[in-house]
Amino acid sequence: MLKRLIYSREGVLSIIVLTMFFGVGVISPDFISLSNSVSIFNDTSILIMLALGQMLVILTRCIDLSVAANVAFTGMFVAMVNQYFPELHMALLIFLSLFIGALLGAINGLFVWLLKVPSIVITLGTMSIYRGATFLLSDGAWVNSHQMSESFIGLPRYEILSMPVLGWMAVVTIVLFFWAMKFSVWGRNFYSAGGNPMAAFYSGVNVGKVQFYAFLVSGTLSGLCGYLWVSRFAVAYVDVANGFELQVIAACVIGGVSIVGGLGTVVGCVIGALFIGVVNNALPIIGVSPFWQMAISGLVIIIAVIANASSGKDKARIILRNPNANDEIRAN
Amino acid sequence: MDTTIKKSATPDSMFTSKLQGLLRWESFLVLIVFLVCVMNSYLSPYFLDPWNLSDATFNFTEKALIALPMAMLIIAKEIDISVAAIISLSSTLMGLVAQMGAPVYAVAFVGVLAGAACGLFNGVLVTRFKIPSIVVTIGTMSLFRGISYILLGDQVVRDYPDGFEFFGQGYVYWVFSFELVLFAFFALVFYWLLHRTTFGRYTYAIGNNPTASYYSGIKVDKHRLILFTLVGVMSGVASILLTSRLGSTRPSIAMGWELSIITMVVLGGVSILGGSGTIAGVVLAVILMGLVTFGMGLLNIPGIVMTIIVGVMLITVVSLPVLITMYKTSLKRKEAKAL
């Protein structure tokens, strides 16, 4: 049992992350203190939530490039609502951010589900549209911290058991995902729809609908993260989270989510995101210039996917995969 | 009923068959380009000035140079999203060589060489380790630009040798800039390569069915390797032009270009699923995007609004053929029921 745990992908990954974590701890003991660990987790919360949403999309053989633009739009929207109606209750604002995020995600999902157009093209398009819409909405202006209400900024910072609400939100998301992806039919369908769409179709899974749900969830989480991002950095502007979608995908890839679909776990995905979080936090401490961060994460992605590919698990699958599988489903 | 089943069972060329329903995608693009020209010249008196039009070409020639090999790569069922990062790395290396006092041609040579090396690296990763190209290039995208950041940090390189500015700012004859002439030249080269050589036919074959191509004796991996290197080389060339035009290098150069390059290719009627598309379509899409950007610039519309329009165009382009087919099949079903 222990052996299997260590040799599993998640096991290897967590050993790497922990080695890195304690390695930095040797150089600077403060790094591994509880409060710093919590703050690293808190820093990574948004990435974790977005990566979990993205995981669902990638599991179903799609990709969502519009998450960062969704974050920017929803963040700007709720910030402006807060600016003009400061007395509005926070619960309502959070609901609003979830709703708008879900709406933007549903647009992606509907195109993929009903028109069967490749998700990479659709989300490439909506990515520009949502980002542009953010500009139209705000007219290029910023919403600064003094224009936001106290509770708007304070909520993610409010500490429960010495961890901010932001971190707790990530914990709740992880637990929900863990349960759903392991024990609910709804969650298992993502694996079947991505692993073998044709088999899924013949066993009564509506593949298109499952893809729609994936985009819906990814969008909803992006919406929530839109509020969290804007509130955490206490500023909303058009270029919020620019290019963040690639980090989100990187977290998934490092965590062992296979880009061809059907493979990936919640735990792996979370560790993948934490890996990026630990690297980002550790670099300044061990005295490496932050300019190294990008190259390191690129190198890690490449090494992770090479390790993934040479483990050889996918090979049999690729040979057996019927290239017409998708089209036969379309024909029906 | 038989016909509908046959149609939808065609693998991957489903988009082309639908596009043929729209007459030809290319002729549709010509029509739109013409309409945009008429509209622009009606809206702004400055549009039809040859020098203004010539200036407008600078907006897209560099991206367009990469769109040409990218079209071939996407036709072969692969993709490269590290192109903008390749521009950055090759520009950085050119800058460092220039700082050491290298002559113009050495600087340009380094640019192309760096591009080729990056493309080769992508290609080797994809073919040797059988990793999907989108993942590889997401990784190398961070890696290449990351190396630029390591080498330059927040520095800017400006010391380029005299004469280097010709590549991005020079004119060959009257209003025809070096960039524009180079683009026209490469458009012809890639037209020849894709539509007139066995190399081009193999590209389509691989895109339509890699396994069948492999068993018919096409060296699929070698072909992919060449295509990736080709994209790298052209990114290097684009990097020379851009660096020369801006006269400076910083690691954040050409940020986000990969997406507009892919948009150009898809807008040109190349199926993102591989197997179909033409160079003529890509060239028209490039011109269309250039004209629309330029026209909106003349009307003082901010650039970011342009991205909305490009996004809408992209989605319309891929959804419209599907919608038309859906409408047709539903009509046929109604007829069948009526009978």
From TrEMBL, chain A:
Major localization listed first in the record, in broad terms: membrane
Xref: Pfam families: BPD_transp_2
Membrane topology according to the record: Multi-pass membrane protein
GO molecular function, one term: transmembrane transporter activity
Transmembrane segments: 12-34, 46-79, 91-114, 120-137, 158-181, 210-230, 251-279, 291-311
Entry keyword annotation includes Metal-binding: no
Keywords: Cell membrane, Membrane, Transmembrane, Transmembrane helix
One Gene Ontology cellular component annotation held by this UniProt entry: plasma membrane
Keyword Transmembrane helix applies: yes
InterPro entries recorded: ABC_transp_permease
Localization of this protein: Cell inner membrane
Family: Belongs to the binding-protein-dependent transport system permease family. AraH/RbsC subfamily.
Protein name as it appears in the record: Rhamnose ABC transporter membrane protein
Organism: Marinomonas rhizomae
Automatic annotation (TrEMBL), chain B:
Swiss-Prot/TrEMBL keywords: Cell inner membrane, Cell membrane, Membrane, Transmembrane, Transmembrane helix, Transport
Entry's Gene Ontology molecular function annotations: transmembrane transporter activity
InterPro entries per the UniProt record, alphabetical: ABC_transp_permease
Phylogenetic lineage: Bacteria, Pseudomonadati, Pseudomonadota, Gammaproteobacteria, Oceanospirillales
Main location as per UniProt: membrane
UniProt name for this protein: Autoinducer 2 import system permease protein LsrD
Naturally occurring in which organism (per UniProt): Marinomonas rhizomae
UniProt function note: Part of the ABC transporter complex LsrABCD involved in autoinducer 2 (AI-2) import. Probably responsible for the translocation of the substrate across the membrane.
GO CC term (a single one): plasma membrane
Sequence similarity: Belongs to the binding-protein-dependent transport system permease family. AraH/RbsC subfamily.
Annotated CDD domains: TM_PBP1_transp_AraH_like (cd06579)
UniProt subunit comment: The complex is composed of two ATP-binding proteins (LsrA), two transmembrane proteins (LsrC and LsrD) and a solute-binding protein (LsrB).
Stretch forming the signal peptide: none
